[in-house]
Specification:
- 2 copies of one chain form a homodimer.
- In chain A, strand 1 and strand 2 form a beta hairpin.
- With 306 residues, chain A is α+β, with helices and mostly antiparallel strands.
- The first copy, chain A, is 32% helix and 27% strand.
- Chain A has 2 domains: 129 residues, PurM-like, N-terminal domain (60s Ribosomal Protein L30, Chain: A, 2-Layer Sandwich), CATH 3.30.1330; 143 residues, Phosphoribosyl-aminoimidazole Synthetase, Chain A, domain 2.
- In chain A, 55% of the residues are buried.
- The first copy, chain A, starts with a helix and ends in a 9-residue tail after the last strand.
- Chain A contains 9 helices and 12 strands.
- Chains A and B meet through helix 1, strand 2, strand 3, helix 3 and strand 4 of A and helix 1, strand 2, strand 3, helix 3 and strand 4 of B.
Chain lengths: 306, 306
């Protein structure tokens, strides 16, 4: 099965609903409440063996990550996160201590972002721990930032540093909720996404939704120390890790060059923000090297189905 | 782990939120929107091997069931179902045909109840098919019916017939959404729940939440033909199946004796509705046999953790 063509097929099975301005295919869906008030909703499933290994994590880290991924989806819309409902499939012989530690990991990050866990479902099986978080957000009178409105000439910007998240960041990342909301409130963003599949793969999602292409500046990509450390083991370059590793959960966004300069000059953010390239008309993604040489990048990233 | 004491522990970890009149521990949570408008939310996870066997079902039936369970939770509040977001963990080698059939099973029942599927998440693993549906509902100006307000002297009523759902009904049941809404609109209900764990187990949830007990009339329990058929194989009585089998997804509700007579006389329902007992002060559940003899029933039902 090809994941993204399946999602496109699903989208085409249904009529648009005037009360659902944003539906399948973005980081969140949005539902009209009254006036300008929108309710945002996102759902994320984390599965043992795919998103975490119980041998390498504490239950609290798994709980934390499950909530953090959904918070990141709301961050990617430039909105506020409010409520979560949580479904957990435990191993049948789970100890109460494990279950409590998992929940406390959720609760700690929920409290940190002022999110309430208001309901859930608990089931069991013999094989796998599975967690699903559905999260509700609100738009605070703002327009949610979708993936589909990047414009030719836009600057491409990214929060934080990229690559090597498997070393630790996929369990410890801080969702960019405050940054996303601040960016949406103070600047005219055109498109935004959170980087879960990898910089190039998620950039491709923006470009495909917007019908545009992009050029990246090789020496402007904020390569993380963990990408460098990982590169020593894998034989890939640190840049490759920054371009293609999944689960960075940084924000990638586009806006006019003028607005991008305002972001850099604003002093609003303690988080690093980098201008890494621009949106262009011709489809595809190219990498401009420091010596001026240009190479085309294949849009590879994490794919669930082989 | 003991499931219900864990849920109680979770509930006690958090402060009440004035904007969340109903939170952890009922069929849905509710969130205040504006004025009397409430948003309801429920989440349900279905796991291969626990809730369905792929050898015994079609993908369309699995998809249908995953949505139907959430619709039933909203039915149990006497409210309307509106939107769903769906997370699916497929086997890694899933064929597109299988995935499409699964979705079409969801879509068919969604259309039947005028529910829109507005978002989702697709992941993969090597072992299990897992589906989570989070569903939003609205209260249409009505008070959602909780589990916790049954009163001593209330009549106990139930829709449909009970027991033996494993024969077929757990895959084919029609959620009692219209019945739940009609009951809430036209009659003064005190408490309601959908029967997923079994009549006795779910009655126990109402009684525990309300601090009451109940007496059931043995000859008034609507035993299903499938319960009778199953009893011939299992050696249990058909009544035992009606009392304890899970996944009937009928509505169990309490209301004054006077209101219960109005329900029976109303002619509003094409679905069978039976008065099966009453709420009493002393804790526990008793069964009154047709010969007047009374026996105490142990509150057994489906338990996820052994």
């Amino acid at each position: 099965m090809e994941e993204f063509s399946f999602i496109k097929w699903i989208k085409n099975q249904q009529k648009r609903d005037k009360n659902v301005p944003i539906d399948i295919g973005d980081d969140c869906a949005s539902i009209k409440m009254n006036g300008k008030k929108l309710c945002l909703i996102t759902t994320d499933m984390l599965v043992e063996g795919t998103h975490f290994e119980l041998k390498k994590t504490t239950p609290g880290q798994v709980g934390r990550k499950s909530l953090a991924c959904s918070i990141s989806d709301i961050a990617a819309m430039g909105c506020s996160a409010k409520y979560a409902v949580v479904s957990i499939c435990f191993h049948r012989e789970t100890k109460t201590r494990f279950a409590k530690d998992l929940f406390l990991g959720m609760k700690k990050i929920a409290d940190e972002f002022n999110i309430k866990i208001i309901g859930g479902d608990i089931v069991s099986n013999k094989k796998l721990l599975v967690i699903n978080v559905a999260m509700l957000g609100e738009n605070n009178g703002l327009r949610p930032v979708t993936r589909s409105a990047s414009r030719v000439g836009d600057a491409l910007m990214v929060t934080g540093t990229l690559g090597g998240s498997i070393v630790r960041k996929h369990l410890t990342f801080k969702p960019r909720l405050r940054e996303g909301l601040m960016l949406n409130k103070k600047f005219k963003l055109h498109a935004m996404i959170d980087i879960s599949d990898g910089l190039v793969a998620d950039l491709q999602h923006i470009l495909a939704a917007s019908g545009t292409g992009a050029e990246l500046y090789e020496d402007k990509i904020p390569v993380s120390p963990d990408a460098k450390q990982l590169a020593r083991k894998t034989g890939l370059s640190a840049l490759d890790h920054a371009l293609h590793d999944g689960e960075d959960y940084e924000l990638l966004f586009t806006l006019s060059q003028k607005e991008s300069e305002k972001v850099l000059d604003s002093g609003f953010f303690s988080t690093r923000i980098s201008k890494i390239g621009y949106v262009k008309k011709s489809m595809g993604i190219e990498l401009q090297k420091s010596n001026g040489e240009i190479r085309r990048i294949k849009p590879i990233g994490y794919e669930h189905f082989k």
